[in-house]
Amino acid sequence: MTTLDLVGGAEPLRVGLHEHDDRWAQRYRDERDRIRGALTGMDAVIEHIGSTAVPGLAAKPIVDLVVVVDDITAEEDYLDPLLAAGYELRVREPGHRMVRTPARDVHVHLLERGDPAIDDYLLLRDHLRRDAADRGLYERTKRDLIARPWNDMNDYADAKSGVIREIEERAREAAMAARAAAGSGG
């Protein structure tokens, strides 16, 4: 389990899973535009990640975004503008910041360009969009876990890590096979 610097301390998980909602994609676009407006002049990459980014996958109704910045330690470049735009700081740890909306329905993960976690988020998202079997496995795992009481939402997230690693490994293998097939003209 990772030790996080949680601003405000641990919070119990109080949100259940919801069937996929097509409005989550629009919420992502709205928040992406809000973030771009706050980070004017920055060349930040903004992606929709997590379960709400995967059509057909049940999810907690919390839209996750990853924002890629050049220097995570230069908080004045991104954190101050995001706080001014109404987001609240929730996590500050080496290499990662997370802000969220006051309603707690949007989480914005800030990572530095080159952080391997960025590729992992996108690999998992894209694989789950394509692979119905792994999407089903992930959803079943989440449903099993969400039925338990959690004193901290991060403990629930940590409990999913084993199945996420399994799926990411299959996703890497599938990506390597696709590259090999493309390289051989097949």
Task: Explain how this protein is built.
This protein is of the alpha+beta class. The chain has one domain: Beta Polymerase, domain 2 (2-Layer Sandwich). The chain is built from 6 helices and 5 strands, in the order αββαβββαααα. β3 (88-93) and β4 (96-100) form a beta hairpin. The model has no long low-confidence stretch (mean pLDDT 91).
Provide a compact summary of the structure.
This protein has 186 residues and is α+β, with helices and mostly antiparallel strands.
Structural features:
Beta Polymerase, domain 2, single chain, 5-stranded mixed sheet, 186 residues, alpha+beta, globular, 46% helix
Topology:
Elements: H1 23-38, E1 45-49, E2 63-69, H2 75-84, E3 88-93, E4 96-100, E5 106-112, H3 116-130, H4 132-146, H5 153-159, H6 161-183
Parallel strand pairs: 2-5
Antiparallel strand pairs: 1-2, 3-4, 4-5
Helix pairs in contact: 3-6
Quickly count the helices: 6
Radius of gyration: 17 Å
Q: How many strands, which pairing sense, and closed or not: the largest β-sheet? A: 5 strands, mixed
Query: How much strand content do the residues show?
Result: 15-25%
Corresponding CATH architecture = 2-Layer Sandwich
CATH top level assignment = Alpha Beta
C-alpha termini separation: 42 Å
Basic shape: globular
Fraction in helix: 40-55%
What is the number of domains?
A: 1
* Poorly predicted segments: none
Number of DSSP E strands: 5
Task: State mean pLDDT (0 to 100 scale).
Answer: 91
Q: What is the ordering of alpha helices and beta strands? A: HEEHEEEHHHH
**Structure classification:** alpha+beta
- Read across the widest sheet, the strand sequence of neighbours is 1-2-5-4-3
CATH topology: Beta Polymerase, domain 2
* Name of the CATH superfamily: Beta Polymerase, domain 2
